Amino acid sequence: MINESNAWSLLAFAVIAVTIIPALNIIFGVVSTETENWPHIKQYLLQEYIINTAILFVFSGFFAALLGVSLAYIITVFDFPLRKFFKWALILPLSIPAYIGAYTYSGMVSYTGVITKILTLLFGKMILIDIMSVPGTIFIFTFFLFPYVYIISRAFLAKYTASLIESARMLGKNYMQIFFKVILPVSRGVIASGCALVLMEVANDYGVVSYFGINTFSIAIFKVWFGMGDISSAVRLCMYLMGFIVSIILLEKIVRGQKKFAIATSKVRVLALHRLPKTKALAVSFYCFIIFSLGFLLPFFQLLAWASMTYDEVLEPSFFDAAVNTVVAAVICAAIIVCCSIVITNSARISQNMFARTAAKLTVVGYSVPGAVISIGVLILFMWLNKFTESAWEYSVITSLYMLFFAYIVRFLAVGCNTLESGFEKIGKTFFEASRTLGCGVTETFFKVDFKMIIPSLVGAFSLVFVDMAKELPLTLILRPFNYNTLATKVYEYAHDERIQHSAPAALIIIAICSISVYYLSKAEKE
Fold it and tell me: What pLDDT was estimated at residue 60?
């Protein structure tokens, strides 16, 4: 007879098994027969895809780490004008999806763009910036993704490095020496975690590289699938992209080697801020302002200006349908993801089985795999399921919605699980064990005790998933039914039709939704 604890574990295992099927479909799909397109792709195109993707990974990751870590160190260690403002404002670039940033900057550096006009006034001649290039793509990824590194690095520095910095100061080291000889070595794992998130977003991107015309693996997958109708070759390209992701993880472990750093005390102490001289303080404030302006202020005000000119043309029934589709899809899938996350994380917490705890870590597979790859795996799965459906053509639209929602769940399940796992860690198992001692079952204990204690984590998980889904683009573009739009696809379609100004109202709504995430992050980061 199966007890309650085992029932939770079995249910969690079933959820995990279903969500990793798309990734397995990609692996098994590689053994299929090569099509006539693959030799051509392999000989003439594959090298360009590999080089461009590698360049974007290396330089975007490096510059995002450079900005994120330097800003985290400055905010944590020094006292300067507007420090409290920049402390949370530097998270705001994360609320602008990279593809919206790309569309906005391409308009600002055009012949009639505001940046071109400013440069013309300053230098007396027209200066055009080629943003639609590999360096321009790196710029976009750097300035809209560096908050991933900043958030994680600042949280670590604020909590665990006070004694290390003070000890180094007593030994006569200046703050520059402390940064390179103390902070960077002990923060290597934290920086690597932030960079991994940046590179996963770069791998998942389609909007930026598509609009800028940069041939990467995500572009190749779309072209081969929709342009050639060749799913087999698209699957093989997916394997190369997954190989990039695996290589990132392995490379970090190899570089780190056997070096490990641990904090010798569990006491958390706030570092006394070092007041900078007036000149240096102004220089630091200016540095933070430049990064904030490039990452948020300029694109935000440009979108506001465009929205004021085009809102009367854009706000039509199709726009409101897209807004409703965005909200409905995000609410339904976020609710399902939170429920699945509860099952997985609670099962891993109460289970004494190491297998169950290890299996829970597999949820990260969906988030680490790019959306284009997941969409291929989901499509293969539903093509197989359609063989058991008598009227597959009749229900094609419904099936597409099922595919899209299932892909959302696979992609963002890790977000819900990570948030709830943190919530369960905070409440511990003391109350759970006390309830079990009093004769309550596992399920009864969860609803009467644990559930009420993790409500903040549940709200946070729902909000974060909702935000991620509101700005998601590649999955929606590939798997959406005919004539089904979300705000993200409306932004993409307007930009693709060279009507960038008309994309502003939808983009601003997405930014407003994403600001919810920034609110929770800044709230969690309060010292």
Answer: 93
Map residue 235 onto helix, strand or coil. Answer: helix
Phi, psi at 274, each rounded to 5°: -90, 120
Q: How far is CA 343 from the centre of its chain?
A: 23
Report whether 121 contacts 160 (CB < 8 A). Answer: no
Query: What angle is formed at CA 55 by the lines to CA 503 and CA 490, rounded to 5 degrees?
Result: 15
CA distance linking residue 482 with residue 278, whole number of Å: 60
- Measuring CA to CA, how many Å separate 95 from each of 22, 145, 295, 468, 508? 29, 10, 10, 10, 10
pTM, two decimals, is: 0.83
Residue-wise pLDDT tens digits, 158-215 = 776 777 777 777 777 777 777 888 877 777 777 887 888 888 888 888 889 988 989 8
Q: Which residue has the tokens 């790859």?
A: 373
**Per-residue pLDDT tens digits for 220-276:** 888 887 777 777 787 788 777 777 777 776 776 665 555 555 555 545 566 678 888
Backbone angles phi, psi at 429, to 5 degrees: -120, 5
Give the closest residue to 469 by CA, choosing from 420, 418, 409: 409
pLDDT at 523: 62
The answer to whether the CB of 138 falls within 8 A of the CB of 98 is no
For the record, the structure tokens of 56 come out as 């974007």
- C-alpha 419/C-alpha 409 separation (Å) is 15
